[in-house]
Design brief:
alpha/beta, de novo design (two linked rop proteins), Rossmann fold, 3 domains, 14 helices, 46% helix, AB_hydrolase_fold, hydrolase activity, Lysophospholipase, Xaa-Pro-like_dom, FrsA_esterase
Length: 406
């Protein structure tokens, strides 16, 4: 008997949990044009399980191929096809950027390549884009403002801030496009220490008083004719759940808040990932970025070395212990009750005990009207930030926001 075989591609991911999540993250972007299932699975079969360097190599190679093909199609006048390929190249560069060390020049180069491809793609969109960097102390905040019409008018606006490793371009694909389809202005921005800011200033580091960032962005936005000040919402993704919550507790110009997921105590949240509190480790056990390469592999594998390097660098405190001590300042605390605008709290049921605890603390603590949603595996959305079903998550967020602003 013969056998019927319809494809050489196989649906198999990674044993390494973090790398498997990153694969799901990339596959999830297929819904919004950021990747193709076939190419993701093809690369997954080539990448050694848990090997960050192999991931970077394969996704950066794919990104360059997609970018080159996009340019060729644009030269032939195929605007739509070119825009689609530039968007995929942007997201492939982002995937490579995620697993690259932020202390090597290639990290910023991958990030800027992602940004460049995105701006090329945006030239093919039927939306108006303004991209600027707004002065903020000694830095400048990267901002994209999209409006649904070429001729601008006052509209409701959704501000979106990502977290530790998300980017403006990724959030445009994940949630911004869905908001534009529903008639929203979409403002994507990043503060100090976030991926987009570090592309320009590698030494940029996170700050706990993120309301200063949001106030600066709102000052710029409200001076523009596209903005309706009474219909301005803020959405925080991942670590951005802290940024957005902290900002809404201090900034009354936020008229609706979506926390996906709510983080009210970043130190406790990150302790859950570490499995202990590095802030109380003995000084002799502390380590710096320079010491990470000589840590034995049986104590810290290559993926953990990479993540530790990026964490220490992005918090700007020089060592692992000092980074976690600094995280103790990233707490909303009693200011949570100052959030009086309507709020939506989101959580995937697969996110674990500490995210669940902080979700519940957020729901108990805010003073304004509260709604919440727990996404399930049956909905394909139980993972962190619902990366497995972005369109469903966006529907929940934007239907709720439509009702708030109706």
């Amino acid at each position: 008997m013969g056998s019927l075989e319809r494809s050489a591609t196989r649906v198999q991911g990674f044993q390494d949990k973090e790398m498997d999540f990153q694969l799901i993250r990339q596959l999830g972007s297929c819904q919004t044009g950021g990747a193709s299932i076939g190419q993701c699975l093809h690369l997954a079969a080539k990448i050694e399980d848990g090997n960050p360097g192999a991931w970077v190599k394969e996704f950066s190679n794919l990104a360059r191929q997609q970018e080159e093909e996009a340019r060729q199609r644009l030269e032939k006048g195929h605007r739509i096809s070119s825009g689609e390929l530039f968007l995929m190249a942007c997201n492939s560069f982002r995937a490579a950027e995620y697993y690259s060390s932020c202390v090597v020049p290639d990290h910023a180069r991958l990030g800027m390549s992602s940004r460049d491809c995105f701006l090329k793609a945006a030239e093919c969109f039927d939306y108006n884009l303004t991209h600027v960097r707004i002065p903020f102390g000694e830095e400048a905040l990267p901002v994209y403002l999209f409006t649904p019409e070429k001729d601008t008018r006052k509209e409701k606006t959704l501000l979106i801030v990502s977290g530790f490793d998300g980017t403006l371009e990724e959030e445009f694909m994940a949630r911004g496009m869905a908001a534009l389809k529903r008639g929203y202005n979409v403002l994507l921005f990043a503060g100090p220490g976030q991926m987009d800011s570090c592309r320009f200033i590698p030494q940029s580091s996170f700050i706990p008083d993120f309301e200063r960032v949001v106030s600066t962005v709102l000052d710029w936005l409200t001076a523009r004719k596209e903005s309706d000040p009474q219909r301005t919402a803020l959405l925080g993704i991942s670590f951005g759940g802290y940024f957005a919550t902290q900002a809404a507790a201090h900034e009354p110009r936020i008229k609706a808040l979506i926390a996906n997921s709510p983080i009210v105590d970043l130190h406790a949240y990150m302790n859950a990932f570490a499995g202990f509190d590095p802030a109380v480790m003995p000084d002799e056990d502390d380590f710096t970025v320079a010491e990470i390469p000589v840590i034995p592999a049986e104590i810290m594998n290559e993926q953990m070395k990479l993540m530790s390097t990026n964490l220490i660098t992005r918090f700007g405190r020089g060592s692992m212990k000092k980074s976690f001590v600094y995280m103790q300042e990233f707490r909303v605390g009693e200011h949570l009750k100052e959030i009086r605008c309507p709020s939506l709290a989101l959580l995937g049921e697969g996110e674990g005990e500490e995210p669940q605890r902080q979700f519940e603390a957020f729901c108990r603590g805010v003073s304004g009207k509260l709604d919440s949603c727990r996404f399930t595996a049956a909905q394909g959305a139980d993972s962190h930030c619902q990366v497995g079903n972005l369109s469903y998550s966006s529907g929940v967020i934007l239907d709720w926001l439509d009702e708030c602003f109706s």
